[in-house]
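Worked Example 4.2. Read the sequence first, then its structure tokens.
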Amino acid sequence: MGISSPLVDLQHQYDLLQKEYEYEKETYRQQSERTGLRKRVAQGVNAGVVVREAAKAINGGGGGQPFLATAGGKNPDGIQAAIDKAVELIVEQVK
């Protein structure tokens, strides 16, 4: 039985984290390709802009990156209007 040094333990933890990171990165790539996300971003759709504007319909706010955004608000009655606005903005950005 060998003696484990702190350096060996750190290297092992690093290796495990690296493998986990690569797995997560590949999983995200596969999911984004399945949903057509990369295609929409390449076409100019910016999720941050879409969400920020659509959230106004629910008396809220939001934002994020071109490929991922979130929002919240205080008016659930405005959800359909927010969805309609998001669709309108996406159609405008794709043209």
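Now turn to a second chain, presented in exactly the same format:
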Amino acid sequence: MRYQLPKHFLIKPVLKESNHSKGLTLFFGSLGLFYSTVFGGIIMAIVEYAILLHNRYGLNDFGLMLFELAITHGVCVFWGLSAVRKYNHKQLSR
């Protein structure tokens, strides 16, 4: 005989914290973005790696590299927060 759950039994969805996403992406950039979205983490890791390679073998301007990495970190924060918001909305609408 199988145990059946009562009809009024609710399962609480697991939600992601937006503050965790914000902190991880601020400190770790694209690696912190993996908490929110794997696809976004891969894309931004490739972008950050391309910036580092461009600085190493191309322009060699350290200030410009820091500016570009600051911009990509900002994009990571925005992307992470929007991914967490979308994930939580999807979990709550089930």
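Notes for the reader: Residues 62-92 form the longest helix (31 residues). The radius of gyration is 19 Å.
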